[in-house]
Amino acid sequence: MWRLTWAQMHRNVGKLIAVGIAIALGTGFITATFVTTNAIEDTALAAASASIGDPDVVVTDSSYSLTDDDVAELSELDGVTEVYTFRNVFREVTTGSGTELLMLNPPADDPRLGNTTLEDGRVPAAAGEIALPAATAERLAVGLGGEVTVVSQVWADDGSSSTRRTQESTVVGLLADGTGLGFGMPSALASEEDITAWSLDDGSTTFSLLTLAVDDGADVSAVSDAVTQAVPEGVTVMSGEEYARDVAASFTGGIQIFRALILAFAAVAMAVAGIVIANTFTVLVAQRTRTLALLRCVGATQRQVKRSVRLEALVLGVVSSVAGIALGLGIGQAALSIINQRVEGVPTPTTVPVDLATVLVPLLAGVVVTVVAASGAARLATSVAPLAAMRPVDSVVSARSTKLRPIIGWILTGGGFAVMAGALAMSGTPGNFELALAAGVLGGLVSIIGVVMAAITIVPAVSRVLGRGVARLGGVPRQLAATNSVRNPRRTTSTATALLVGVALVTMMSTGASMARTQLEGELDAQFAIDVAVTGTTVSPTTVEAVRDVDGVESTVLFEGGTADVATASFTSSATVLVADPATLGQVLSTAPESWDPGTVLADGYLIGQDGPVTVGDTEIDAVLVEGLPDFTMLVTADQAASLDLTSPMQSLWVAIADGADPTDVAAGIRDAVSSTTSGTADTAPLVSGGAIEKAGFTQVLDTLLAVVVGLLGVAVVIALIGVANTLSLSVVERRRENALLRALGLTRGQLRSTLAVEGVLLAAVGALVGLVLGLIYGWIGGLLMLGETTGMTIASITVPWTSVLAVLVVAVLAGVLASVLPARGAVKIPPVAALAAD
């Protein structure tokens, strides 16, 4: 049977290529999912490791209780080579060309420790030496051997006054650029002597993070146990790898959920591929009906014929799955190469991370789905007696759907939607979110299973309605296509079902994404209400003008103020108090209230948990909570400020970035403007901060993830459209004599092609329309369930992603036409006389 199987595969290579593409796309989908999530995990782990180097042991204490005595004691432990302390001293570094605020640490003796990478020169070894990030050195127009001034603002013990001290330092090294505005301070290195002196000036002599390097050959576990005994109670001791994984988990904690979600979609894609495979093998068996019947007449058993079909499916499944895995790996590698070329400073892997699951899971999925899907065709090949199979093809392949299946389907559909409605009602009760979400997911699964089972009644009904509309347009091809689209309801349903499932998923995700994006934009606007803030003891008019002239800056407002003690019912804290004009506040604060009662102040959530009275100094004032203000910040009117005793005068320039401008470029321009205008002055360099980059980053991540998800789900649609082509091919096989007779009666080749094209469009349109309706409903319900409790989303928040809806319809129509091309070629290339002749 092997030779027979090989011969049959060779004869039908065109059909097998079509189903092979479906299998490869499905397995490629799964492979890409594993590659993507593996790469995210590896990148997160590398980024976390880069923040501490490669230590053997890490000691952390959130209460900052670690002291120099602890460092000295740990250094004396057997096996410990070095104990590195992260001092994180902030200092202003200036030249004649600019000024910048940097975070400085001492260099590590052991190359495994520290969080900076030396690109040129050497690390500081003596007082008066410094190593700068390359971008900072360029901004300050200084190179190796150049001089910079390090400025310290030393405050008196009572905080009433400060002294400005300067120190000349020589640049001895250039470091790889760290993160900038919005993601932390640029990191630099200074000598241990300078760092110690600056720490004493700041009064900061305790630490929260120590990293240890262990002697080669020493037992790291034993050293870790000794460290645990030596440090104070409550301090955490772990390995460097454990620390990095914990940090990575803090921003990839949902990666497993993300992987599970995408693999669920991959399972749907493979299920759709299974439908296409089943249809394709049905086509192949239909074309070989007489051949297989003849084999059985000459002695082949039913088992041998079944084995031949299944062997063919096994070979095809293995070959196509391997091709799909290669496709997924190739796409992943191409994506990583592009990212590594265009994105700097992100430690992404250079090659796709491949583990056993990345290869084994898609391979098994592709082979199993192919063999199982082909089992129906194998049964079909032996379900008819050999002599009966010698009759015309259509009498062999047609079948009637049972009456029980659609009844069960409608029951499941109604029950599923009833459960989802109950979940929506339940979600309105506080504390029921998890239960309501679980009920909604269960209802969705039950209802989609019901829709698939009831599709035998839904799809033909929609096909008849669309067919009547097409027939009324006139013309023989349209009328024939309308009739043919409903001649075999079971086959039409199986094809349309594959497409409607894929379209429903894409539409559901697009709808949910549209609702989530609208809601997220509101949340981000509230959380990052200020694009950029330039804050310092003074912000000179020159700096203000330079910032206003930066491309992409839409508006600026300069606030003056100071600090004051603010007391609420629960605690007292020092707060930044800024004087604001209600008329201009809305230009730079997206959450500014439309009206501002002159008798109230505006405060952030860290100062007040809710609206109510607060005491500023000795004055009691009503406070209103405003989201998006900087932490521990209060806004007052000029009249209110006159009655308050503010200390430590300061200024803050708030900047709004224009719509469409790149926040990263604008922020860099603002930093350059601040640096260049504070150089050589007696003013302390202002701190540049703000949420523009974070907001843009969150939005970009959301858009990227949704694009990946929708793009991957689009694979299911592509697979389903292959099924449309296969169904048309089966239609050509069944109607070969009929088409020949129509040709003999005067139907032209062009008209026959048009008939099949219209039929393909009808099949695709039916699946697309039903899928769109289901996808919108599922997307609305899912959006309300997942976002309603946390964001207050209601039915009024429902949106329709018209762009996606129209795109799906256009793609369906075009794909229906394209799917008819190959079947049409096969239908018209056979002369009518040859087609009418007996086989």
TrEMBL record:
It is found in: Cell membrane. It comes from the Bacteria. One of its GO terms (molecular function) is transmembrane transporter activity. Residues 264-378, 712-832 form the ABC3 transporter permease C-terminal domain. It is a multi-pass membrane protein. The chain crosses the membrane at residues 12-35, 260-286, 313-339, 359-381, 407-429, 435-462, 496-516, 705-733, 754-781, 801-822. The keyword DNA damage does not apply. Its main location: membrane. One of its GO terms (cellular component) is plasma membrane. Keywords: Cell membrane, Membrane, Transmembrane, Transmembrane helix. Belongs to the ABC-4 integral membrane protein family. This is ABC transporter permease.
